[in-house]
Amino acid sequence: MRGYRLGAIGVLILFFAAVVATVLMPMILFNPKPTGHGNIYVSETKADPIRGRQIYIREGCFYCHSQMTRLQDRGMGPLVAAGDYCEETPHQLGTARTGPDLTNEGGKHPNGWQKAHLINPRALKPGSIMPSFSYLSIEDMRDLVAYIQILGANRPVEKFVQAPEEYAPILAAKKVDTNSDAVANVGKGLYAQNCATCHGLTGRGNGPDALSMETKPANFTRPFYKQYDDAFWYYRISEGVPGTRMPHWGENLTPEQRWYLIAYIKRFPQDHEEVVDSTKQIDRMQMEMEHVQHVWNPPFKEVE
Description:
Layout: H1 2-29, H2 49-58, H3 111-119, H4 121-124, H5 138-150, H6 168-172, H7 181-194, H8 196-199, H9 230-239, H10 255-265, H11 279-296
Helix pairs in contact: 2-5, 3-5, 7-10
């Protein structure tokens, strides 16, 4: 019996030690300073975002949605800091991501969109497994939308299109001048060899392989791409684009080769969007690509 008692006492000691180390000590020692980027519970309308937060908790939204961007996240906005949650008690960090992260959801869509999404999620996002909250009263719906709209609204966004923070050191260590014509000329060959079959020689997304793709390649002549800086181009080339057949060129191209590609892609005209308006242009592109493949990979010729 004595051995069992000693074992039980040992287990209790370990349990309380774990509670002290993981709960009590952080509560006492970890006191982050407010960053000033936390949620501000002020609404421009009559809605009450504080009450909306209570409805968010009551309806169990935190079971599927997190409110904490992670280092490996892509396209979810700025990362958060511990000081962002000083006024959040209890915090709604969440763990599972059955639904998208809501850290920076505020302001992404108008109030009407958020309300329609809560009433009928699949009408706006086909395939969504989010249940309908159409049973909420008018007041509850209004306050819940107000709460969603303040999430991350006080967190500054330097750029609309921004590469993940882990790419900042890579940009700082860059030794290739992507604004150089000589560098762009080197990138032209890499583009023709690796990218033109999908994006086309002129960057309009009209390469010969584009016809068989459900998600079409990007048209680099769109003015939208003026927003891309070197770091974002490097990130996209390295990791590809989710939902497309674009490879992760970071596995095949060296960092220098990726910078060469960026230098050339930035040379595409972006004053207006060019489109393919006839199948004859596709045929012409096919002929041009066959010529490029012949130049880069000339047929084997036996020596007589």
